[in-house]
Amino acid sequence: xxxxxxxxxxxxxxxxxxxxxxxxxxxxxxxxxxxxxxxxxxxxxxxxxxxxxxxxxxxxxxxxxxxxxxxxxxxxxxxxxxxxxxxxxxxxxxxxxxxxxxxxxxxxxxxxxxxxxxxxxxxxxxxxxxxxxxxxxxxxxxxxxxxxxxxxxxxxxxxxxxxxxxxxxxxxxxxxxxxxxxxxxxxxxxxxxxxxxxxxxxxxxxxxxxxxxxxxxxxxxxxxxxxxxxxxxxxxxxxxxxxxxxxxxxxxxxxxxxxxxxxxxxxxxxxxxxxxxxxxxxxxxx
Length: 286
Prior knowledge:
mainly alpha, 2 domains, 6 strands
């Protein structure tokens, strides 16, 4: 598969970067809630733009405006200019205001020649997570988004209907990740039994060097590893954590592609911890 490289404007980092930078920045600039009564006009417009891209996939600014204002030609032209400013930012009286592209929720996705040559835009993977976090999307809307973005998250969105047939509403647990809850911080993971702690920690270790920049395929891989590893974790009725790999095992038994990919990660993590333990045992302390 050809690697999807992020645009010159949009540079995204790993899931830690989403948690520590993109998400709090987007919350501050565009809102941490979908409640329109508490949002400024600017935040409403950005959230509206993100929702259009979430439900329709790659679009030009003209196409976005047409979706918002069907049949109103003069209004569409005005709305298109507004969306362009939201995307690329503006300079007013010498003060530069960055657009959504610079934050990393949206990226350029080639050009369209249907009308006039124009840039197409779509959600980045950080943008997908922000939409799950903030836009209060229904399950049906999430299902629509997965179809539009199956090509950028193939092991999760590309397997969506298959996954739903096996694990039902557990597919929507991706919302946990969208809220920055990685299950790899010390306070959370110390309450978990092996191998949940080790696997979640290794997902972060594997992509630690990619805090400032990561190729989209690698970020999709990190998100996918989190998604499938999270299936191991459950809570019983007494609210105590317990480990059960039945859901994950069921998927691995019925999808050879996911099985081969996930078992490679599993063996890689085992080798990492074995090497780490061997290094400790070789230490000659006096």
